[in-house]
């Protein structure tokens, strides 16, 4: 049997780029390639782990709209999980194609996880050209310092230069307001270039972003959430191509999105590492508590779920059952989400619209993932093939371009974003999808030779893995409540029926400590010591495979 014929989509009409997609190499044996995750925020979080960020700075961050991002802290990336997700990302639809249907990260997720504003002006404009000396003067005015010449690379500034300046400044209650604002712009630039929109450089931030922070009082008028999502979509699209070795963008958003929804890959939540409550600005004013994304910055327990290599995660996604994916994971009545409800624009979560970030334009497709909004999914329309050409447009060698003019048609579509809000009948107990939807999914989904996929990828991994296992026994770990009461897969007439049960500790990457933000008015920010699971000298891994073909295989290693 030609494995390529059963690994890609049966119908190439919609997913027309399979020959260029990284998943096309998997049948050829490229099954262990892991993407490198680009970010430039490690030094930032290390510094603020030991130095309190003053409440006046947090107040200005809240004015800008980045307060929620900071309150969520830093998570260590699971590059194996990210790689497996990228293999299922399709640039043609901007969705992940799972056995349970299409799903994607939307404006809803960006606003709930990081509390970023999504309504407002698009983040675009003139890509201005300046000499190094002119950039130094510009930085002096808006950042409060003049970087050395070697800190620049064209119109980009090295993040280390910004951090070196931050180390020299101490903000107090008596610090002049202009100095506090300049300092906060530095923080915002580091968050943008290091965590929210890190590019392939890994340590440079475009000074173009600073133009939207010049006026602090109007900075929140921009749709930072749609800009961050546009950048992430572009990175996912590029990383999904053959031969790509790295990925940037807001991967912390993506990882939390996956943990919140994919039950077999979601860790249990234990002791919090962050200060989660409100921050007092003065006697009668408080900043909100930490947003939803902050609850994941805690001790993680993987004893009832899977944390392992890309090969096993790939197989879990290949064989995912309906009740292993949570379409609506957020408790909208929880205090964590209600704290930001006044700033939410839920109608835009379902807007089919362009996401704009200077040169980047990517299309938001909520109409393809309606179950994420509690609506019955119909067969989506064919994506516009012209949208694929947008991936070829970048800022490279385009200094001096006015992207507000270049993308004027898409900006006009963004201005009409409330005219393209999707509405469908709500999900009922009897029907989650319209007739014919599952036939459409079957034609688009990756179809594996079940025997080859399961035995080759799972049993071989268990039998021949040489990684050190972990043994996690954390009595303080508590598990979050889920809308789904079962973690066991169920049969479905519309799916192949493969049961995978991995018992005992799984192999894992070595866990690292999590970095935590600390407002300056609290005393004990570390609610627990760093959790480092011990490594067992021997372990057993048991895989019970019911292939649905009259074959049952048990693989055990001691």
UniProtKB/TrEMBL annotation:
Renumbered to this chain, the signal peptide range is none
Q: Which one GO biological process term can you cite for this protein? A: meristem maintenance
Q: Where is the composition biased (Polar residues)?
A: 464-478
Q: Write down the InterPro entries for this protein, in alphabetical order.
A: AminoTfrase-like_pln_mobile (IPR019557), MAIN-like (IPR044824)
| Highest taxon of source | Eukaryota
Q: Which Pfam families match?
A: PMD (PF10536)
Q: Which residue numbers delimit the Aminotransferase-like plant mobile domain? A: 65-435
Spans annotated as Disordered: 464-506
Q: Can you say what this protein is called?
A: Serine/threonine-protein phosphatase 7 long form
Lineage, broadest ranks:
Eukaryota, Viridiplantae, Streptophyta, Embryophyta, Tracheophyta
């Amino acid at each position: 049997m030609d494995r390529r014929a059963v690994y890609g989509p049966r119908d190439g009409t919609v997913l027309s780029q399979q020959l260029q997609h990284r998943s096309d190499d998997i049948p050829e044996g490229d099954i262990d390639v892991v993407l490198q995750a680009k970010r430039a925020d490690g030094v930032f979080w290390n510094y603020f782990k030991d130095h309190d960020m003053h409440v006046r700075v947090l107040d200005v961050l809240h004015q800008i709209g980045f307060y929620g991002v900071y309150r969520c802290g830093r998570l260590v990336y699971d590059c194996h999980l990210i790689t497996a997700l990228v293999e299922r990302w399709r640039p043609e639809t901007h969705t992940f194609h799972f056995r349970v249907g299409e799903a994607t990260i939307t404006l809803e997720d960006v606003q709930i996880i990081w509390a970023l504003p999504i309504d407002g002006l698009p983040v675009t404009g003139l890509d201005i050209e300046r000499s190094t000396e002119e950039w130094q003067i510009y930085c002096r005015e808006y950042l409060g310092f003049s970087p050395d010449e070697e800190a620049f690379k064209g119109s980009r500034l090295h993040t280390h230069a910004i951090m070196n300046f931050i180390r020299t400044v101490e903000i107090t209650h008596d610090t002049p307001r202009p100095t506090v604002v300049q300092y906060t712009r530095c923080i915002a630039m580091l968050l943008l270039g290091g965590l929210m929109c890190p590019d392939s450089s890994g340590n440079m931030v475009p000074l173009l972003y600073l133009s939207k922070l010049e006026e602090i009082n109007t900075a929140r008028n921009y749709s930072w959430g749609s800009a961050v999502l546009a950048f992430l979509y572009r990175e996912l699209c590029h990383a999904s191509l053959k031969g790509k070795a790295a990925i940037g963008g807001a991967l912390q958003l993506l990882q939390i999105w996956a943990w919140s929804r994919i039950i077999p890959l979601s860790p249990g939540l234990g002791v919090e590492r962050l200060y989660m409550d409100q921050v007092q600005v003065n006697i009668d004013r408080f900043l909100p508590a930490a947003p939803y994304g902050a609850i994941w910055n805690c001790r993680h327990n993987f004893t009832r779920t899977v944390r392992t290599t890309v090969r096993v995660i790939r197989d879990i996604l290949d064989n995912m059952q309906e009740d292993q994916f949570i379409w609506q994971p957020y408790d909208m009545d929880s205090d964590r989400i209600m704290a930001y409800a006044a700033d939410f624009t839920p109608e835009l979560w379902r807007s089919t619209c362009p996401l704009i970030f200077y040169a980047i334009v990517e299309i938001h497709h909520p109409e393809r993932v309606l179950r994420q909004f509690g609506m019955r999914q119909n067969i989506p329309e064919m994506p516009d093939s012209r949208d694929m050409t947008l991936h070829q447009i970048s800022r490279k060698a385009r200094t001096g371009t006015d992207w507000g003019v270049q993308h004027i048609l898409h900006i006009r579509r963004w201005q009409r974003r409330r005219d393209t809000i999707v509405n469908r009948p709500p999900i009922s107990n009897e029907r989650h999808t319209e007739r014919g939807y599952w036939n459409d999914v079957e034609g688009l989904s990756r179809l594996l030779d079940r025997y080859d996929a399961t035995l080759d990828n799972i049993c071989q991994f268990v039998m021949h893995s040489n990684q050190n296992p972990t043994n996690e026994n954390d009595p303080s770990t508590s598990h979050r409540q889920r809308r789904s009461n079962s973690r066991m897969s169920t049969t479905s007439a519309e799916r192949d029926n493969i049961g995978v049960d991995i018992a005992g500790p799984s192999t894992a990457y070595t866990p690292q400590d999590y970095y935590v933000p600390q407002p300056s008015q609290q005393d004990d920010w570390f609610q627990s010591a760093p959790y480092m699971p011990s490594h067992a000298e021997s372990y057993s891994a048991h895989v019970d495979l019911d292939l649905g073909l009259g074959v049952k295989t048990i693989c055990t290693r001691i």
